[in-house]
Amino acid sequence: MTSIDWSGVRERVAELAARPGSDVFGAASHQFLLDPPLSPDELVELEEQLGVQLPEEYRSFLLEVSRGGAGPAYGVFPLRRVDGRWRWEGDGADLTVPATLGEPFPYTGFFDPAADLPEPPDEDDHPSAEEFDAAEEAYQELHDKVAHDPRHTVGTIYLCHLGCAYRQLLVVSGPERGAMWADDTADDGGLKPLTDARGDRVGFERWYLDWLDKAAETA
């Protein structure tokens, strides 16, 4: 197993927090603040509740760096323990369904859930504004039912949002386990793996540290 080195990460983030007037995207939201890490006992309890062992890169981040806060886009969704149950909090964090985390994520490459939907209604095809509005509403209901069907994202944890309902997630079960993916279904951009310049999959460690490097250059 490749060793994961998180040494100095909290210190680097603290340095960014001390710089005034940062231009880093999303910094106004997370303010370069990190929650404390999980204790080993808390991680055990979390994984027992989820029924899965988290991918090692994210798992070690939770233990050594933070349970959430400063990170890509508007930050890494933080873990919170509420009424004895662990959950992620953030815009779209509720898209994570703990009960389905053990089910394999069904895709290994780009997939657009809305690709086979009919074309949206054309105003010219409807004799009245009322008929067009009704057709448009019916189409949108169908679109949302298909595009945002939670069965498309079983086995994943939503970890951050980029605004406008664009989000990124971590695959925890199935062939893509450990890979970061983008959920761009809000604009019919589909689900797609995050890749580097060579086309290789990006895992949590690379995802986070690349953000930290770029933030240091921008801040």
Automatic annotation (TrEMBL):
Domain of life (superkingdom): Bacteria
Knr4/Smi1-like domain: residues covered: 37-214
SMART domains: SMI1_KNR4 (SM00860)
Pfam families given in the database record: SMI1_KNR4
Protein name from the UniProt record: Knr4/Smi1-like domain-containing protein
Coiled coil: none
InterPro entries: Knr4/Smi1-like_dom (IPR018958), Knr4/Smi1-like_sf (IPR037883)
